[in-house]
Specification:
Chain lengths: 211, 221
């Protein structure tokens, strides 16, 4: 049974139709890799599914009910990692993660575990401004573990990561799916995702734009 | 509730560690008020007459200074996306942020105001009125300012734009804030003015979080 469904989505940004007639369905444990050239709407699709953007047409369903029926419940069941890493320069690594964890209703004890999985435990008391780009990204990804949610929407999560961290991320993603979690990921880097299906966004590009 | 406390604690901690915001607001307030004796001359009568107006106008301008940063840093580092996506009402999150902002900028203004009142030779009868009026007025400034701060996200030169949007809305607070002090000095009851200020505060408390939240949702689209 499909947990997350999107039907005939149309996304309009500014005056431009980014994609049209896009449908997808995800079952527990399933992963979907979004691919396509720049501007084909990978980020927009993830933001639509998160509820940050509204579709111009089409419906997004979770267990057969519209996500707009209860947006608060929908926000509670998803974790979103975007292009930017929201790390406050004057807060320590632990304080940064603890804040986002509490905001999601997660438990404080999950913070240390999440930091450990992404190799940040040794940096826990270092202020955010001292972190490298890759470390900031790992801190952002650690949110996935500190406040668990069934639906993960990841937008280019591997940017700035070294090989070891990519392997750690792959292990985390595999564990999430093994527990029945859903994963939508936009990535240019081929990640080891067993049995993941791919959605090429280029074929949903609207032709009416040319008219 | 945990989430709202987390926001309040984080914003207070950020303000405490960065410190500059609060300091700038208070220093601007003190410095600008001290300019007036140089500008209008040092006659105590004149200064006493204009004291309430000078203090209130300067307090309005000082509170504008820090508004830009209310949502700007979260907007720039992508944190606003996550705030909007948190499973908590955005309106109550705005309220928590406003409370933190008032504690770190409004309260220091209230503390500095009596000192400046003495400095301008405001009659002692007006001091109580000034404190009460500022206690009721400054939260309104923060709440109304939050709407402006949320609306200008993503705009260039947002700080200037906020002033243009928000200053006209500050006029009622200014009028009744000054009236309360002048009334107290002249021996009239200040209660009616304070009640209007209280009414403005309650109105802002209901409307501002809702309007700011709508503007924030627009900003992340």
């Amino acid at each position: 049974m499909a947990l997350l469904e999107a039907q005939d989505l149309v996304c309009v940004r500014g005056e431009r139709t980014v994609f049209a007639a896009l449908s997808l369905a995800l079952e527990p444990g399933e992963a979907l890799v979004l691919s396509g050239p720049n501007g084909s709407g990978k980020s927009s699709l993830l933001r639509l599914l998160a509820g940050l953007l509204r579709p111009a047409a089409g419906r997004i369903l979770w267990q057969h009910s519209l996500i707009t029926d209860d947006p608060q419940a929908h926000r509670g069941r998803l974790s979103y990692v975007g292009h930017q890493d929201p790390v406050k320069p004057v807060l320590s690594v632990r304080e940064n993660l603890t804040f986002w964890t509490r905001l999601k209703g997660g438990a404080d004890r999950a913070v240390s575990h999440a930091l450990e999985r992404f190799g940040l435990l040794a940096l826990a008391d270092v202020p955010g401004r001292m972190l490298s780009a890759g470390e900031r990204r790992r801190l952002n990804l650690a949110r996935l573990l500190s406040a668990p949610a069934p639906l993960w929407l990841l937008d280019e999560p591997t940017v700035g990561l070294d090989k070891g961290s990519v392997a750690a991320l792959e292990a985390v993603l595999a564990a999430h799916r093994a527990q029945g979690g859903l994963l939508l990921i936009a990535t240019h880097l081929p990640l080891a995702l067993a049995g993941a299906s791919e959605l090429g966004l280029a074929r949903f590009a609207s032709t009416e734009a040319a008219a | 509730m945990t989430a709202l406390l987390a926001i309040l604690k984080r914003d207070l901690r950020l303000a405490l560690r960065q410190g500059a915001d609060t300091l700038v607001v208070v220093l601007f307030f003190v410095l600008t008020v001290t300019l007036f004796p140089f500008g209008v001359g040092p006659e105590p009568d004149v200064l006493a007459r204009i004291a309430s107006g000078v203090i209130w106008v300067t307090a309005l301008l000082a509170s504008l200074l820090s508004l830009e940063r209310l949502f700007q840093t979260d907007y720039e580092d992508g944190g606003l996306d996550l705030l909007v996506l948190a499973p908590v009402g955005l309106e109550s999150m705005v309220l928590a942020k406003c409370l933190a902002h008032w504690l770190t900028t409004g309260v220091p203004l209230i503390v500095a105001a009596p000192l400046l009142a003495l400095f301008l030779d405001l009659p002692a009868d007006g001091l109580g009125g000034l404190l009460l009026a500022m206690l009721l007025g400054t939260p309104t400034l923060t709440l109304v300012g939050a709407i402006g701060a949320a609306l200008v996200l993503g705009a260039r030169r947002g700080g200037v734009l906020i002033s243009l949007l928000v200053l006209p809305l500050y006029v009622p607070v200014l009028i009744f804030g000054v009236a309360a002090v002048d009334g107290a000095v002249a021996g009239f009851p200040m209660r009616p003015h304070l009640m209007v200020l209280g009414g403005l505060f309650l109105g802002a408390l209901v409307l501002a979080p809702w309007a700011s939240a709508a503007a924030l949702r627009q900003a992340v689209e």
